[in-house]
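Model the whole thing, not chain by chain.
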Amino acid sequence: MAVATISQHNKGHLSWRKFVNALMLRLCTLGAVLAVVVLGLVLYFLVSRGITALTPHFFTATPNHDNEKAGGMAQSIFGTLVLLFIASCIGLPFGILGGIYQVESRGKFASTVRFLTDVLNGIPSIVIGIFVYAVAVAPVAKMHPGSGFSAQAGGLALGIMMIPTVMRTTEEILRLVPFSMTEASLGLGATRWRTMWSVVLPAARGGIITGVMLALARIAGETAPLLFTILGNEYFSTHPGRVLGFHTQVPTLNAPIDALPLRIYNYAMGVDPDQQHLAWAGALVLILMILIFSIAARSATRNKFMEEK
Amino acid sequence: MAASGVDLSRSSSFGVRYGDKIYSLITFLAAVSIFVIIVTIAWNLAAASKDSINHFGFKYVTGSDWDETRDVYNILPFIFGTLYSSLIALLLAVPVSVGAAIFLSELAPKWIRTPMTFLIELLAAIPSVVYGLWGIFVMIPWLKTYIMQPISKSPTHNFFLFQGQAIGPSMLAAGVVLAIMVTPFITAITRDILRAIPRAQREGSYALGATQWETISQVVLPYAKSGIIGAIILGLGRALGETMAVTMVIGNQSANNGVSWSLFSPGYTMSSALANKFNEAPPGLNLSALIEIGFVLFIVAIVVNMFARLLVRYTAKDLQGR
C-alpha cells in the first residue's frame, strides 16, 4: 500500500517535472524566436517602405523642397563618408597602437587600460557629442559667431567612439596569433617592433580589418553625437583645392556637413509624408552600408588563425 | 672581440638601436589616450556646466521645474523618465534575452545556432535612428491600436499604469524600443557566460536524474548568476544613455511638469531632453544646465559600467579558475 502511494506520488511528480521541463524549454526557444521575429519585422518594413523611394536621383540629387519626390540624399551620403574618413584617421592609429600595447605588456597598468576601454565603450554617444561640442564647437563659435559646427568636430566625436572598439578587437585578434611565431622572430634576432610589424601584424591582418569594419559599421549609424557637432546642410560642402597636384573639389572640414542618420532623423520627425518616405529610403541605404561593412568584415576574416575561433 | 662589438654597433641601424624604445613609447601613448579621453570628458563637462552646478546645487537633481522663462532648470522628471523607461525595457528584455541565451547555448542544434547568433548580432548592428523610424511609423500605430486603445476603453483605464489618453508616443513605446535594442546585447554576453560553464557541472546534474530544465535552472543559472546580473546591468547602461530611438518615440513632454507613472503618458529622458532642447538653447545658464545633463549621464554611465564590467570579469575569472 505504502509502496504503491510512493510510486504513484513519484509518477505524478515526475510527469509534473517533465511538464515543467518541456514548458520552460519551449519558453526559452520562444525567446530566441521572438528576437529573430522582431529583426524580421524591422527589416521587412525597411525594405518594403524604403525601396519605392530608392530612385537613381536619391543618390545624385540634394534635397528639393519644391518637389520632395525629386530630391535625394546625395549630400548626406557624401557627408557620412567624409565623417567616416575623419573618424578613421583618429580612431585607427590610436585604436590599433593601443591594442598592440595591451598585447605587448602584461601587468596592472595594461589591465587597467583594458578595463577603461570597456568603460569608455559604455559611455553614451550623446555624452561624447556634448563633450566635443564643449571642446571643439563652442570655443570656435565664441571667437567667430555663427560658425563652430563642422565636419571635423563630427569626425572627432565619431573617432573617439571608434578608439575603444578598435582597441579591443585588435587586442583580441593579436592574442590569437601563436606566440611561437613571436618567439621564432625574436630568436632570429629581430627587434620587438620588427617582429610586430613583419610577423605578427601580417598574420593578424584579416582580423584587424574585421575589427575596423565592425567599428565603421557601428559608428556609421550614430546620430546622437552628430546632433551637436555637424548641424547638417543641404548642399555638398566642398571647396576647390589640390589633391596630389590635381585641381579638384575637396571636402570643407571647418563648415557644417550633412550625415545620413541625421537627415533620416530630421525627415522622420517632420510632417511631410514625402520626406518621411525619403527617410525610409535613407534608412534602407544606411542598413545596406552597414551590411556591406559587416560582410566585408566577415570575408576579411578568412584566415587560418581565426577559423578556430 | 672589442673590434667586432664596435663593428656590430656601427652596422646596426637607427631602427635597431632606438626602434624598440620608440615603439614602446608610441604604443604606450596610444593606450594612455583612453585614460586621457575619460579624464578630459569629465573635466570639460564639469567646467562647461559650472554655472548650473553653482546656481542650482543639489536641487538640480531633486527639483522638477524646467522653465526657460524663469531660467530655472531642474531635471528630476528627466531622471525619472530615464529610470522608468529603462526599467520597462529590462522587464521586457531580460526574460526574452536570458531565454534566448539559454536556447543558443544549451538547446539549439549546431545548424541553427550559428545563423541565429548571426541574426541576433544583426539586431544589435541596426542603428538607433532606424529603430526610431520604425518605432514611429510601425510600432507606435500598432501599440496604439492593439494594446493602448483596448486598455483605455476597458474598465482598467483608471489603474495608475494606464491613466491618460492613448495618443501613441509614450513611456511604453520608449520602453519597448529600448527592450528591442538591449536584447541582443544581453543575449550575447549571457550566452558567452553560459558557454564558459564546464560541461561536468551539467553532467553531474543529469547523473542525479535532473531534467534539462532543472539542470539549467538549478545548476547552470546559479553558477552564472553574477555574470548574468553583470550582463543585465550592462544592458541597463545601454538603455540609460540611448538617445535617438527614445527621442523619436517618447513624445518629449513632461506630464504636468513632473512625474507620471502612467505607461501611456509621454515623457522625457535625460538624453531625449538633451537632444531636443539643445539646438534651441541660448548660451548662459540654460546651455550650462543642458551640459550638466550630459555630465550626470556621464557619471551614471561610468558607475554602472564599472560595476557591471567588474561583475562580468570576476565571473569569467571564477569560471576559468575552476
